[in-house]
Automatic annotation (TrEMBL):
Species the sequence originates in: Scylla paramamosain
Statement: the UniProt record of this protein carries the keyword Signal: yes
Segments forming domain PA: 82-166
Signal peptide: 1-25
InterPro entries listed in its UniProt record: PA_dom_sf, PA_domain
Gene3D superfamilies: 3.50.30.30
The name this protein goes by in its record: PA domain-containing protein
Domain of life according to the entry: Eukaryota
Keyword Heme set for record: no
UniProt entry keywords in alphabetical sequence: Glycoprotein, Signal
Length: 205
């Protein structure tokens, strides 16, 4: 790790000494740092998914896996549907359970425990559940989803999505009258440099 520290120190000196406009210096410094680092250096346990359709949502998204319930995201789902639960909080069996069959359920935080949401999504036939924060302005804080001491054991993977990303996905699907997005989950990002990451423009990881 010593060489990384030396590189960062040299880059910081370059950042201070180069006779460039502030915004140009900042961009140069940021890109140089990220070029030296892969995602794994910063995010070891989180997982990622990518949206293939609709194209306006075509970015790579980060998820925080449930801490102590559900199953790991070990099975790779390619071209699977991502469907909004109705009602979105998914505290009871969704009205659109047939649409959730064989899909990934996108649900909202609030109204009941994370475990309850996973249980109801599984009962509807979903193969995984993504819980988006109910704060649509949250673009940085990941919540640790933990069990609720009810001894219920959902058998599907569960992950937490930032509220800003969840809001953008849900709004786009509704505005475009789309029943589902098409995604790949999980995607392997362990060796991808930060500067090559296709992240949503509204999120800075």
């Amino acid at each position: 790790m010593l060489w990384k520290a030396v590189n960062l120190l040299l880059l910081a000196l370059l950042f201070l000494l180069l006779p460039l406009r502030d915004c140009v210096r900042q961009e140069l410094f940021s890109n140089s740092v990220w070029n030296e680092a892969t995602i794994y250096d910063f995010i070891e346990d989180d997982i990622f998914f990518e949206i293939l359709y609709p194209k306006e949502l075509g970015y790579t998204y980060r998820l925080r896996q449930a801490k102590n319930f559900g199953t790991p995201f070990e099975r790779i789902f390619k071209g699977i549907r991502l469907v909004l639960a109705d009602p979105l909080e998914c505290c009871s069996l969704p009205y659109n359970a047939p649409e959730l069959q064989g899909a990934v359920a996108l649900v909202s935080r609030g109204g009941c425990s994370f475990v309850s949401k996973a249980v109801k999504a599984e009962q509807a036939g979903a193969l995984a559940v993504i819980v988006m924060d109910n704060d649509k302005d949250n673009d940085e804080m990941y919540v640790e989803m933990v069990e609720d001491n009810t001894n219920r054991k959902p058998n599907i993977p569960a992950g937490f999505l930032l509220g800003r990303s969840g809001y953008m996905i849900a709004r786009t699907l509704r505005d475009e009258h789309e029943e589902a997005a098409i995604i790949n989950i999980p995607v392997n990002m362990t060796s991808v440099p930060f500067h090559k990451l296709n992240q949503p423009p509204w999120i800075l990881w």
